[in-house]
Amino acid sequence: MDRMASGWINGFIGVLIFSGSLPATRVAVMHFDPLFLTVARATIAGVLALGLLLLFKAKRPSRREIVSLFVIALGVVVGFPLLTALALRHVTSAHSIVFVGLLPLSTAIFGVLLGGERPKPAFWLFSLLGSALVAGFALAQGLTVSPVGDALMLAAIIVCGLGYAEGARLSRTLGGWQVISWALVLSLPVMLAAAILFRPATFSGIAVPAFVSLAYVSIFSMLIGFVFWYRGLAQGGIAAVGQLQLLQPFFGLALAATLLREPVTWQMLAVTVGVILCVAGARKFAR
């Protein structure tokens, strides 16, 4: 029970940190090209991760673990950041945040396929209900906003769920902070070269909030958040703790409304409340 409680606490902290990712990305893409933003945040986080691995003399992953680390890197280091950055050129962060409600279902499915977890049937009922609320919102409003933006967000959710599940599975043997650190370091050479290649012609004229947002998605979204998130998933179960992501839209909408002054409709709030209620039901029948 202590391990389960610790998993939910770590997972909750991770969700809180990730909640600021989309609003921060929305600010950053107003000044940075999405491709540069993706490789720049991975480069900054990769350099920090390399320092951590050297400082704590972490053991090197095995060949089999390296394959998993590349899958994780493709999902959460490259795939999700790039796809969301592209999507946020078409939709607001408030609109995109609602799609995060689909992440628990995506993570749970990959948790079953990769991690061998077997939640109870009632778990899938609550998980599907929460996802259906989000999908219904997207169908009601997304097609009139940007089909391209919604398609990119859906693709981002799929690759992110894969990265979460594989990272959680590997964290059981390699350790949470080591998993994300090695994934970042393995992708660092390519990310660094791409950051130099796609850097802006000049950084003059770029507003301070854009640099602050870049720092946030690099340090917190790309590194610190994953330390808590992977540990939480490994301790409490991928499918179970993954349901905490249903809370992420609530925090994200609050940030979008307060920091970006983006409109938050009553439909967005209703969907958020609905998926929060699904967390309680999914948690009860997770195992």
Automatic annotation (TrEMBL):
This is Transporter. Residues 7-130, 149-279 form the EamA domain. Keywords: Membrane, Transmembrane, Transmembrane helix. InterPro entries: AA-Vitamin_Transporters, EamA_dom, EmrE-like. It is found in: Membrane. One of its GO terms (cellular component) is membrane. Belongs to the EamA transporter family. It comes from the Bacteria. Its main location: membrane. It is a multi-pass membrane protein. It holds the Pfam family EamA. The chain crosses the membrane at residues 7-29, 35-55, 67-88, 94-115, 122-142, 148-167, 179-198, 210-230, 237-260, 266-286.
